[in-house]
Amino acid sequence: MKAFAYVTADDFDAASRALSSAGPRAVAKAGGTDLLALLKSRLLEPDEVVNLLRAKRDDVKGEVSALTTLAEVAEDRWIKENFPAVAKAAIEAATPQVRNTATVGGNLCQHTRCWYFRDANYACFKRGTGDCSAAPDDAQNRYHAIFPHKRCVSAHPSNLAPALIAVGAKALCVHPEGGRTLDIELLYDEGPSGRRSDTVLREGELIRAVLLEPSPLAKRSTYVEFRERQSFDFAIASVAAALDLEGKTVRDVRIVCGGVSPIPYRAKAAEALLRGKKLDVDAAAAAAVAGATPLKDNAYKVPILKQLVRRALAEIAS
What pTM value is reported for the model? Predict the structure, then answer.
């Protein structure tokens, strides 16, 4: 890999200032589980790496530091009781070794696993080197998106993002020009050509923490996924669902899918079908996949996703 300067930040503000000063040739490192592979393949060739692991983690109720590991999220009693979808998404991620290293911020901001993105020999919209190489009929696109997309058909890999969107979580961000709070759902954008990440974070901006606010919707939530191998694979498809029920009537609902769109896909048609009515698991599952436009090799994802939606809603309702 290319040689680079290594800077250790004492807090998120200092890290953000360092990243902003260094400009686009600087990257942040927390657990580094994704960054190392990108550096070794030279898809990222930064002049400076800013280490976040020594940054101060504020102990504030309802805030989960971006440096919290997935293992810590999965084991947290308060999260398990009030946001079960989030705890389940964390425990499903990767392997125990990775969960003990990977962080909340890294999981939310990780790069796509699309092999065309990760091979510099191919044109890639996300890298800004041409049109999407995964979209044509002669491409190998078994693991790619099945929902409407702009110019990228990669599948979003995050476990936590769908779950956090389903429970209405927010990202607390820092930047030298001022911090801001974003709904996790608004953190993602397919983006213009040249973006290396699916987030809307500005240059030098970092997620400091995730804000979780207990609610009836978040408390009745779950996360399910399907992988080819349960040991370590990324999900073929995943579903995070949250239900607020009054008797048998759905007062509110969120259904968010992962692994099937360039960014987390919220099944709003299925939500609208359920809201204010009696829970109909089969109808919601059908509505969730109604807009799918699979590629040559990945139509198999449609029935898998449909079954995952059915399973998630049935689990909560029971």
Answer: 0.95
